[in-house]
Amino acid sequence: MIPYGRQNIEQADIDAVVEVLGSDFLTQGPQVPAFEEAIKSHCDVRHAVAVNSATSALHIACMALGLGLGDMLWTTPNTFVASANCARYCGADVDFVDIDPLTYNLSAEALADKLAVAERLGRLPKIIVVVHFSGQSCDMERIAQLAQKYGVRVIEDASHAIGATYQNTPVGRCQYSDICVFSFHPVKIVTTAEGGVATTQSETLAERMREARSHGITRDPSRMQGQTEGDWYYQQISLGYNYRMTELQAALGVAQMARLETFVAARNRLAERYDKQLATLPLILPGRQPQAVSAWHLYVVQIDDQRTDISRKALFEHCRANNIGVNVHYIPVHLQPYYQKLGFKAGDFPNAERYYQRAISIPLFAQLTEAEQGQVVAILSAGLS
Ligand SMILES: *Cc1c(COP(=O)(O)O)cnc(C)c1O
């Protein structure tokens, strides 16, 4: 089976992890700061806080921005459930903004309309989580203008987008957001097995996130109540979690970050080949956001139902039966039973629902060979004819 995504592990990665196993620190040693440095340097950003998953990073990002009971967070329905769940962890409510049918990202136009209505109703969100779907940045300049106009904070869920740029600036620099989050799950572009990071330009937000990832504990005397009692002393000053990344994960991350540019270049090359080789099939190919260079986490095609009668289910099953490990991203979050119980229903976000009916993610990962790509194209053509 050619999978839709796969990690790239070389001897250098293995050596880095094995070295940590023989060292003094399996957690809370020098590798996590080294990994944070690698992220900061790539993103050209002041702070990076590494944690055990992007889900944790989204949670501490919401905590740092003060999201709480009765607050509202908006995100896109075309995402993994974690982008919405982070609000629920904080006791906040969730609503969604429909997608742009061209890029499958949260639509800045729909956002503008929904914010105007929410202001009239006195129900503005505190936070918007935008997701750079498939690795391509959202229209951040426009989104930031709207966020500023209505006093809303912005988190970028860039789980798909490490190595991407927007306006020639690396995603993760937080040029148009408060906090940006990356995932290092093995299907993503860079992996630490499990892991995530939150970047920010704000010292205050970074400090709050560092506190939240480790029980709400500080060892900094300037942040304590009263005096420190000695070098052993720490204080718990808020309620945090254990969301720490291990040294093994961080060492793997450092080794992987050294190859980020190679990974993204390979993904771009493969995506361009798919664009050419699939051009004549009855498929809708991924649209482009101006000013954005995608990191190409996913290559999603939609079945063009104007040009073929084949259903998504039939094409999916045909590919799987022929050893092409296609997948579907995403089942709209508002249609998950958990969110339906909160009141959402089919028809609420028609663009995301229509997209979902027709979408298939086809194999794309750094070491996918041209021969394998040829196989994917051949199986797709056969399935569509
Ligand atoms: C993978 C993913 C997450 C969750 O990442 P984890 O590191 O597995 O917690 C969140 N949002 C999006 C858009 C993702 O693709």
UniProtKB/TrEMBL annotation:
Source organism per entry reads Idiomarina tyrosinivorans
Which InterPro entries does the entry link to? DegT/StrS_aminotransferase, PseC, PyrdxlP-dep_Trfase, PyrdxlP-dep_Trfase_major, PyrdxlP-dep_Trfase_small
As recorded in Swiss-Prot or TrEMBL, the protein's gene is named pseC
Regions annotated as coiled coil:
none
Catalytic residues in the record: K188
GO molecular-function terms, A-Z:
pyridoxal phosphate binding; transaminase activity
PANTHER family the UniProt entry points to: DTDP-4-AMINO-4,6-DIDEOXYGALACTOSE TRANSAMINASE, TRANSAMINASE
Which BP terms does GO give this entry? polysaccharide biosynthetic process
Q: Which family does it belong to?
A: Belongs to the DegT/DnrJ/EryC1 family.
* Record-listed N6-(pyridoxal phosphate)lysine modification sites: K188
Q: What is this protein called?
A: UDP-4-amino-4, 6-dideoxy-N-acetyl-beta-L-altrosamine transaminase
Highest taxon, organism lineage: Bacteria
Which Pfam families does the protein's record reference?
A: DegT_DnrJ_EryC1 (PF01041)
**UniProtKB keywords:** Pyridoxal phosphate
Give the signal peptide as a residue range, or say none if absent: none
